Amino acid sequence: MDRIISPLLKQGQPLGHIFATHGQQLGCSRRTLYHYIEQGAFSAGNLDLPRKVRYKPRKVRKPLERSIPSYRADRTYKDFEKYMEAHPETNVVEMDTVEGTRGGPVLLTLLFRNCNFMLLFLLERNTQESVCQVFNALEQRLGTGGMLDTFPVILTDNGSEFKNPALLEKNLAGKSRSRLFYCDPMASWQKGRLEKNHEFIRYIIPKGRSFESLTRSDVILMMNHINSIARASLNGRTPFELASLLLPCSLLRFVGSKRIPHDDVLLKPRLLKHLPAGR
Hints:
- The protein has helices at residues 2-9, 15-26, 30-38, 50-54, 77-86, 128-142, 144-150, 165-169, 192-204, 216-227, 239-246, 249-255; strands at 92-99, 106-112, 117-123, 153-156, 180-182.
- The protein is an alpha/beta fold.
- It folds into 2 domains: 2-52, no CATH class; 72-272, Nucleotidyltransferase, domain 5 (2-Layer Sandwich), CATH 3.30.420.
- Helix 1 runs antiparallel to helix 2 (15-26) and helix 6 (128-142) crosses helix 7 (144-150).
- The chain starts with a helix and ends in a 24-residue tail after the last helix.
């Protein structure tokens, strides 16, 4: 059992992924595996469990009552909930950015709730214009109708790069291509699937590292490894598998989506060896 478990844990693979891909070989429950690790039964231990090391209990703050800025008018989280109640079959995409060092390049992240598939785009600057360029590129590939079908509702936070909804919701011709809603201030848990996926990015590029040396190829590689992690929430399937069934092939080709074999998934800084270590 140790020959299966320990090498994969040391590649940064979540125990859930290992159990989903090797459960029959292991012959025990996931809880039992955690117990064995706690007891030091394997050469890999607690320190090799990424979330065991990094997870901190989340403090859920009650959103402060304050006046609604104009960009949030009819786009608040309450508006989102009302919209989804009226349109329950609508697919939701969560959107955010991940920073390297202040003022440098950032990663734009978009996650499809129906399959946990995450798109990653490297932005040279964390600006509204940079985000809009990605939307324009997606629309060019999918068509305006295809863009609206694929990204019907986007839930994002209140970062300055997202505070011009009209720029993102409509193209230059004024045609709708998506619909934006905003989380409550200080309530990132409202797009919790994406926040959890950001942990996988940080396993590979720890917080505080610059993105200056990142290339598009690096971003695609990282995206593919993350999307090849089996999830308990998907009944042991990977986001890649479900995206292949649920998302347009043209989108998957455009972003360079590729399956990584289960045992090759690597969520450690050595995946991107050329990135400088430290701040």
